[in-house]
Amino acid sequence: MIKVKITSKNFGETAVLRDIQFEVAAGETVAIVGRSGIGKSTLLKLIAGTDTSFTGTIDCSKSRSIVFQEPTLLPWRTTLQNITLVHETLSLSAARDALARVGIAGKDDMFPGQLSLGQQRRLSLARAFAGRPDVLIMDEPFVSLDTETASEMISLTEKLIRDTRPATVFVTHSEDEAQRLGDRILKLSGSPATLV
Questions:
Q1: What share of the chain is helix, strand, coil (3-state, %, to 5)?
Q2: How many structural domains compose the chain?
Q3: Is the separation of the CB atoms in 43 and 71 below 8 Å?
């Protein structure tokens, strides 16, 4: 589902990534760890296709969803609209089911600003999984959550991944999160960063 072969990624004269190569199969979750600023989010942007300025090749299904560090929700749209606007062919019933799967059933007409941070993260997950993507990309999806909420969110994400079986790549600063959610853990190290 995902084949990554990056020879180099530079920002101007600064080399950021070098000789990155790995694959992720359908239903597999790969965690990427490394110190802050090493290039984890940059790598995710390359995989997501939002940054195409690099040397190498990335083969990745076009059916993909991205969960960002901060919930990128439309504040002027309801929870239900935040799902149906992204997935235009999704029925209202299926969108409500997506909300129910993440534990925020009955909040169809609420706006993101009326939800707690944990509920906003749940809405982001509902939106990501509603279209049953082949590829899931997550950039520190549990950051800024208290320990109990983060644990609940990891359990929820594990269940959604089991049900949907996308090829998943996620970045985390937490070794515990990586161990719990990842089938494999890849570590970025060095300057420019490479996998170790």
A1: 35, 30, 40
A2: 2
A3: no
Whole-structure pTM value: 0.88
Distance CA(18)–CA(140), nearest Å, equals: 22
On the question of a cis peptide bond just before residue 192, with omega within 30 degrees of 0, the verdict is yes
Compute the average pLDDT of residues 157-173: 93
Report the pLDDT value the prediction gives residue 8, as an integer from 0 to 100. 95
68, part of any domain: no
Under DSSP, is residue 148 helix (H, G, I), strand (E, B) or coil?
helix
How large is the average pLDDT for residues 97-120? 92
Task: Round the average pLDDT of the chain to a whole number and report it.
Answer: 92
Q: What is the rounded average pLDDT of the residues 98-106?
A: 91
Give per-residue burial for 54-86: e unless 16+ CB within 10 Å, then b: beeebebeeebbbbeeebebeeeebbbebbbee
Indicate whether 35 and 127 sit together in one domain: no
